[in-house]
Amino acid sequence: MRITLHGVTVRFGTRTVLDALDIELTEQRIGVIGANGSGKSTFARLLNGLVLPAEGTVLVGGHDTAKDVRRIRRQVGFVFQNPDNQIVLPLVEEDMAFGLRNTGVPRKEIPGRVREQLAHLGITALADRPSHALSGGEKQLVALAAVLVMRPETVVFDEPTTLLDLRNRNLIRDTVAALPQQAVVLTHDLDLLTGFDRVLVLDRGRVVHDGPPRTAVPWYVERCS
Amino acid sequence: MRMSLYVPGTSPLHRAGARWKLAALLLCGVAVFLTTSVAVLGPAAAVALALLLSVRAPREQLVRQLRGPLLVLAAVVAVAALTESVHAALVVGLRLVVLLLSALSVTLTTRTSELQDVLELVLRPLDRAGLVNASAVALAVSLALRFIPEVFRQFQEIREAQAARGLRGSPLALVVPLVIRVLRSAEDIAAAIDARCYPPARTGDLDRHERLSGKAPG
Q1: What is the pLDDT of residue B174?
Q2: Is the ipTM of this complex over 0.85?
Q3: Does B150 touch chain A (CB under 8 A)?
Q4: Which residues of A fall within a CB distance of 8 Å from B201?
């Protein structure tokens, strides 16, 4: 899906968080890296209308996030850094059904869709488990499943491996790699970007480097050292 | 700490609709106060116990859920026996046993989402009159059930962190960081709810979701 940012500026109060961005995203795997406070999370939230620009426009599949946010949220799923705050209902399958119910999917279709998605991620056994009793990796997988069950065309990940141990990090990495959807991944975990098509480096609200991982990652590492 | 008591299963009570279970519970609550006959209340308590056992909940969970209320019940029965009569104590005890076991049977076999649906249904007239947003109220109840264990976990984390630095027994020092954490989480939770297309396509009318099927994604 084509995502286009035209002259996008975001301000929180008097602070400019993103500054006059002009970018077009069409690749299947896009990484976004940068130091804390560089504007990565705000950038991600622009892509499904959780944040609206103070200036400029964000077009997702030709639709303006400021005007057609409901349609865009169906098209662009968002996986948050902390799954504890993303899983909003007590049981796993209830939480997965939440987005489907909100988008008007017929009630009788919902259990089948939920089971299918759980099976696809290999977590069928979690269906009836209470959300708060899951491990960190399980929570992140459930959070991802709850987004994928809505069948978005694009999935935005906000630092999906930050809170995970090595095993769960690898699990999420493999799951992201296998997604058929377009994925925009914000991360500090540079290994996660292996095989990506494009990496943006953000610094103080601007894109300071834009290229394939083989050039963008070393450039960023050198800049940080 | 666990707020949602639901236990997965296939018992008749699991298969029964939430609205019927809650209506039956309401009727049961009224009915036990219409009689003072031990000959009626005794079998009613036996039926309530049979219903609870039919749920096939783990024994340790039943013990955990019943221990506290049964202690209170024993105290109430003892006071009634001392201040009134053995018959009065039996009536009070059996009424409470019926209510306790029936309510536990319902909560063990009913998902939060089903309770949410019933709450929306009950509030629908008020929603139509513009007095409440039924969908929002139902979601708020579900969120409370989901996040009370999280708040409790955060409370324990803060308490342990403070104890590790030698700070003990200061309620203010516990409450202030807890409130700040909860407020921060609340922003993320609100964003997560928005990101998943809340509010529903149309609010307050469960049947209308069905008619929106043509607009469903993918």
Answers
A1: 86
A2: yes
A3: yes
A4: 102-104
The string of DSSP codes covering B22-80 is: HHHHHHHHHHTTS---HHHHHHHHHHHHHHHHHT---HHHHHHHHHHHHHHHHHHHHHH
In chain B, where the domains are located: 12-110, 114-205
Angle at B136 between CA B135 and CA B141, to 5 degrees: 100
* Distance from the B108 Cα atom to the nearest Cα atom in chain A, whole angstroms: 13
- Put simply, whether the predicted model's pTM sits higher than 0.90 gets the answer no
Cβ-based contacts of A80 with chain B (< 8 Å) = 188, 191-192, 195
Report chain B residues whose CB lies below 8 A from the CB of A72. none
Number of domains in chain A: 1
Domain that holds residue A96: 3-224
Task: Collect all residues with Cβ–Cβ distance below 8 Å to A100 and sequence separation of at least 6.
Answer: A109, A110, A113, A114, A149, A150
- Mean pLDDT, residues A74-95: 91
Residue of A nearest to B196 (CA): A99
Confidence grade of residue B202 (pLDDT, cut at 50, 70, 90): low
Residue A20 sits in a domain whose CATH number is: 3.40.50.300
In chain B, what residues touch A98 (CB-CB under 8 Å)?
196, 198
What confidence tens digit (pLDDT) does each residue in B52-86 have?
999 999 888 889 889 999 999 999 999 999 999 99
Residue B206: band (very low, low, confident or very high) from pLDDT cuts 50, 70, 90 = very low
Closest in B8, B146, B197 to A90, CB measured: B146
